[in-house]
Amino acid sequence: MSYNIRYDNRWDKENLWSLRKDRLSQLLMDYDPSIFGIQEGLLNQVEWIDITLKNYNYIGVGRDDGKLKGEFCAIYFDTTKYEVKENSTFWLSNTPDQVSIGWDAALERICTYGLFKKKMSDKMIWVFNTHFDHVGKTARKKSSELILKKIKELNTKSLPVILMGDFNSNPDSDPIKIFKNNLQDALEISSTTLKGPRGTFNGFDTMHPMDNRIDYIFVKEMNVISYRHIDDRLSNNRHISDHLPVMISVQ
Question: Residue 40 — left, alpha, or beta (φ > 0 → left; ψ -120 to 50 → alpha)?
Fold first, then answer.
């Protein structure tokens, strides 16, 4: 599962984190993903999810300092099912090993990754989670190229790969086309048709259909059984976040 949870913004009025967080945690518990990545989570949000989901642990750092400051692209995993063998974070820039802003991006952008081993099994999988810049067109394209380069460097044993995130890119854009030259859009290879709206971004707007797809899950060496955009709501029919979570089931 990939989920942009919307950062804790005190100006969000009726969409404040404090009004959304209980329902968001309940959604995660209801769907019970073995592994999921979030985008835009600040430390208090990352810790809230960690506390409320009892069997999960997470990897990741804040993008502003490589520690606790700024938004995380945290990856959570069910500790009863998986253990993490290695993990790190790199910045989407020409200097990926240090805190930096890349190309024409407006902000620091990161990709967090981990190598996960399934318990009671020899099966292992690489998982990458990212959030592309909303301004820099060049940055988005270069970020795709950098992530693919990192995957190639790390995945020397040709293990299965999952790449997820908010890519701020439509399906016909260059960043997505670059990924699809090396990875598979899980929606396109799913054994079943998409469940939920076609789009993933709602902007907290409950009045109009969602047709803007900018959140994706890409895979390599995996069989995708289902692909879903989860349109669960608060009790007042407001959205839980300004993005829908994307969830796949795989073999």
Answer: left
